[in-house]
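Ticket #4471: structure output looks truncated?

Reporter: J.K.
Steps to reproduce: submitted the chain below (261 residues) through the standard prediction queue, then opened the result file.
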Amino acid sequence: MHCLFLFFILFNMNSIIVSFLITTFAGLSTMIGIIPIFVSNDKAEKIIPGSLLFASGVMLTISFLSLIPEGFALFCESNFIFPSILFTAIFVVVGIIFSSKISKKIEEKLSSNYLYRLGIVTVIALIFHNIPEGITTFLSSNHDLSLGLTLSLGIALHNIPEGISVAVPIYFATGNRKKAIVFTFISGFSEMIGAVLAYLFLAPFITNFVLGIILSMAAGIMIHISIYELLPSSFKYPLNAKVLLFFLIGVFVMFLCHFFI
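Returned output as attached by the reporter:
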């Protein structure tokens, strides 16, 4: 009897450890996005706009193809269709306003360095996006390992361009690789924070409505960053057809992740 009880505890602990490992893998795949900062600086005029356009394509696609529909579906679990549409729209707008306010506050302190400001705003947005993502990955993995693995693979793939959107502007703004790596790590590790919060505190209290609010606001934040930060920043550099193609590549990559993973 004691042996069976011990086996149950060990099995449960292993399930939790595996769920943490899967969430960590998904979050820290963001670090792959630091690769462009090791390219020579004389290619900065191509790397920066290409990376920003790619990241904006990724973020807009995530927002409209994943976050907004998922938020809407979660609201529908406890509401009729029209109130769910209204809630989704309201909290997307709240996310846009929140991102705008944060951006203005940072701009007051970093107005002379738009790339650095862009990197910091993106870190804040990704933390807000990655914490609920970490919660979802952890809970899914703990409930169904195969579902958690599939979800984490999709998240890992879209976290790579998110890492690019942090590492590239911060590195080319400061010339400091260590700083770019640290901020990229922080944005990715926030998924692990979501997993810890889910395990210790939040799991019993997270309702579909609350997750709907978080995902809708995350979508609003990403839409604001893409349209008002990433795209205008990329247009400050000489652009050609090849560079502009990176936006479409970002959209295409996220379509593949969404439909085939």
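Triage note (M.O.): checked the attachment and the full token line is present. Confidence is low (pLDDT under 50) at residues 1-13.
Status: closed, working as intended.
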